[in-house]
Design brief:
9 helices, alpha/beta, Rossmann fold
Length: 293
């Protein structure tokens, strides 16, 4: 097997279902970065019975081989493609395998679309625990863009009011620099129901939006200066964050969001907004750690 490059784009081949959307995304990212594609499949430990571990592993290897042949089939087989078969729990095994990757790509079914729910349940824990960015690609996704002037070919990043916002925005700016695109920094705010309309109706809401915009610009000044070569637009809206991000996903090539962290030692988690975005977004969603290890 070829030596695995530590910055490869890793794809979790979780079952025998079609993963063409994830493969297309991974191939495009590998070409942009000048790296290879690393395919990982997890087989379960098999208890004593009529079917042994060797037979299960053989099926897993065949799946990896067939998937490897599909990578780059539309544009030639010039990409370095490596494969890895591991045993254990799917989510934890993928997190462990991602330790030497530069990016993890998983495919999932959006809410309301046909397909096993387990594909999404794998995406969530991997995105919550991986030390490298994880991109969830909707089933059937295809990068159909018209060119550099296409307004939908920018990256949108969700920026909350927390201390991790600069790191999340920096991740989006770095991705945009690779692509030669711009970034839309989106911050959404909403007061607690049922008091939002009562407290922030009319001019009060407009004034609060402008204040949020000023605070966001101050908070991000350093990272925006570091990536001064990447066009960036700050957008602040009076709307629920999940609704605003999902809507923005319909007009962007990549949506970047930052996961949360527990304040007690229970490990990282996604947060309700990120979980909602993963369920409903129509574009690839990159989940990053706002406090990288």
């Amino acid at each position: 097997m070829p030596e695995i490059r530590t910055d490869a784009v890793m794809v979790g081949v979780t079952d025998a279902k079609d993963v063409s959307g994830a493969l297309r995304f991974a191939e495009a990212e590998a070409r942009r970065r000048g790296v290879g594609v690393h395919l990982v499949h997890v087989t379960p430990p098999v208890p004593l019975g009529p079917v042994g571990q060797d037979e299960v592993d053989r099926t897993g290897r065949e799946l990896l081989e067939n998937t490897a042949r599909a990578v780059g089939s539309e544009r030639g087989g010039d990409l370095l493609v490596t494969t890895e078969l591991v045993h254990g729990s799917v989510a934890s095994s993928l997190v462990d395998a991602a330790e030497h990757a530069g990016l993890v790509v998983l495919q999932h079914q959006r809410m309301g679309r046909p397909g096993p729910v387990i594909t999404l349940s794998i995406t969530n824990p991997v995105a919550a625990l991986s030390q490298v960015p994880v991109v969830a690609v909707p089933a059937g996704w295809r990068e159909d863009r018209d060119g550099p002037d296409d307004p939908e070919d920018r990256i949108t990043v969700g920026a909350d009011s927390g201390d991790g916002a600069p790191a999340v925005v920096a991740a989006a700016l770095a991705e945009a620099r690779i692509r030669g695109r711009g970034v839309r920094v989106l911050h959404a705010w909403h007061f607690r129901d049922p008091y939002d309309d009562l407290v922030f109706d009319g001019p009060a809401g407009d004034a609060h939006t402008e204040e949020r915009r000023r605070l966001l610009a101050d908070r991000l000044a350093g990272v925006l200066g570091e990536y001064h070569d990447v066009p960036a637009e700050l957008v602040v809206v009076h709307e629920r964050a999940a609704d605003a991000l999902v809507a923005a996903g319909g007009h962007t090539s990549l949506l970047v969001v930052g996961r949360h962290r527990h304040t007690i030692p229970l490990g990282p988690h996604l947060g309700s907004v990120v979980r909602a975005v993963l369920r409903h977004a129509t574009c690839p969603v990159m989940v990053v750690d706002p406090v990288p290890a």
